[in-house]
Amino acid sequence: MTDPRHANLQRDPTAAEAHGHIRSYVRRAGRVTEAQQRALETLWPRFGVAYTESALDFPALFERDAPTILEIGFGMGGATADIAARHPENNYIGVEIHPPGVGNLLKLIGEQQLHNLRLIQHDAVEVLRDMIPLGSLAGVHIYFPDPWHKKRHNKRRLIQPAFVANLCRYLGKDGYLHCATDWEEYAVQMLEVLSAEPSLYNTAEGYAQRPEWRPLTKFEQRGLRLGHGVWDLLFRKR
């Protein structure tokens, strides 16, 4: 049986609808610190991956063959670095649009000598469409995406039926999708959308316990102390 990580190393031509997708983020300039700028200049050539319309060859990219997990929207990258450090047996690809976050995670990569992590600074929908081979991912992490809490903005949320259906095509058999949010109304929508996707099944009865691989962020710890909720959802590909 062909290993799906080595299969279909061509751009997927069927996802043309992504050209007109609603962006789930706002481009913010943000301030890049001197340390982040140094990391961008010195470490991007080694750990950064330029956006291209050619599918990636994961074993060539990481110089080894290992399960590859994609994180969409890693923010400032603290949790991403922690996960990669705890699980050196996996390869990780982080996708983020904002330069300060990319620079900060590159800084952490350098400080912690993380060789199993690569970064792409580009829109995640387009990265999936053009760079990720079908059936190639062991998992996908989507942690605390923008909840777009105003009702008129709900359509900009990332977790929507069409996006999830498309995303599942890039998961290998038994690959997992792990989402987390601290916005209850969005958690309800996530559960409804993921439960309705026929190619996924829920690993829990409703919301899941936080898996050991997802560290608590400082923001999350503060919220929990104040009594705010956090909801994890862990689904797998059938």
Automatic annotation (TrEMBL):
<feature type="binding site">
    <location>
        <position position="123"/>
    </location>
    <ligand>
        <name>S-adenosyl-L-methionine</name>
    </ligand>
</feature>
<feature type="binding site">
    <location>
        <begin position="217"/>
        <end position="220"/>
    </location>
    <ligand>
        <name>substrate</name>
    </ligand>
</feature>
<comment type="function">
    <text>Catalyzes the formation of N(7)-methylguanine at position 46 (m7G46) in tRNA.</text>
</comment>
<keyword id="KW-0808">Transferase</keyword>
<dbReference type="Pfam" id="PF02390">
    <property type="entry name" value="Methyltransf_4"/>
</dbReference>
<feature type="region of interest" description="Interaction with RNA">
    <location>
        <begin position="152"/>
        <end position="157"/>
    </location>
</feature>
<dbReference type="GO" id="GO:0043527">
    <property type="term" value="C:tRNA methyltransferase complex"/>
</dbReference>
<dbReference type="GO" id="GO:0008176">
    <property type="term" value="F:tRNA (guanine(46)-N7)-methyltransferase activity"/>
</dbReference>
<dbReference type="InterPro" id="IPR055361">
    <property type="entry name" value="tRNA_methyltr_TrmB_bact"/>
</dbReference>
<feature type="binding site">
    <location>
        <position position="71"/>
    </location>
    <ligand>
        <name>S-adenosyl-L-methionine</name>
    </ligand>
</feature>
<feature type="binding site">
    <location>
        <position position="150"/>
    </location>
    <ligand>
        <name>substrate</name>
    </ligand>
</feature>
<protein>
    <recommendedName>
        <fullName>tRNA (guanine-N(7)-)-methyltransferase</fullName>
        <ecNumber>2.1.1.33</ecNumber>
    </recommendedName>
</protein>
<keyword id="KW-0819">tRNA processing</keyword>
<comment type="pathway">
    <text>tRNA modification; N(7)-methylguanine-tRNA biosynthesis.</text>
</comment>
<keyword id="KW-0949">S-adenosyl-L-methionine</keyword>
<feature type="binding site">
    <location>
        <position position="96"/>
    </location>
    <ligand>
        <name>S-adenosyl-L-methionine</name>
    </ligand>
</feature>
<comment type="similarity">
    <text>Belongs to the class I-like SAM-binding methyltransferase superfamily. TrmB family.</text>
</comment>
<dbReference type="InterPro" id="IPR003358">
    <property type="entry name" value="tRNA_(Gua-N-7)_MeTrfase_Trmb"/>
</dbReference>
<feature type="binding site">
    <location>
        <position position="182"/>
    </location>
    <ligand>
        <name>substrate</name>
    </ligand>
</feature>
<keyword id="KW-0489">Methyltransferase</keyword>
<dbReference type="InterPro" id="IPR029063">
    <property type="entry name" value="SAM-dependent_MTases_sf"/>
</dbReference>
<feature type="binding site">
    <location>
        <position position="146"/>
    </location>
    <ligand>
        <name>S-adenosyl-L-methionine</name>
    </ligand>
</feature>
